Automatic annotation (TrEMBL):
The name this protein goes by in its record: Lipoprotein
Organismal lineage: Bacteria, Pseudomonadati, Pseudomonadota, Alphaproteobacteria, Sphingomonadales
Source species: Sphingomonas arantia
Signal peptide bounds: 1-15
Keyword annotations of the record: Signal
Amino acid sequence: MTGTGGMKASGAVMAVLLLAACGGGGNGNTPVVANETVAETAATNAVAAAPVTETAVSFVGTWTGPEGLSFEVEPVASGGFRVRNQDTLDEKTMFDARQEGGTLRFVRRGQALVARPGTGAETGFKWLANKRDCLIVQAGVEGYCRD
């Protein structure tokens, strides 16, 4: 394309890619742009379908919470993760999870949840306060850290 029309479409595609890379407003959905073109849709879909990167590996391992709770993450061949989770003193569950941006999304006991990286202080638990490599499901309610 030549002229300003080509520049406009190119700029719009870059804006969609930038929004997608930044999380599109934090709600976990692919950003929706008014009057989205076919090229913009293709660019957005390409970002959403990007392969799991090195960031995903950072979720792998055993994360320890207060009072013996744990969140154990292992990769699976399909590209996602399998989690063994002791989130209560009485019950250990297993479920699948997937990376979405810098978070780990999963459904546990019918509830959609997100684990995000953070610090021990952000977990809201005094037992984890000095840790730096943590996963937070809900601050003050559920958090896990690596030693």
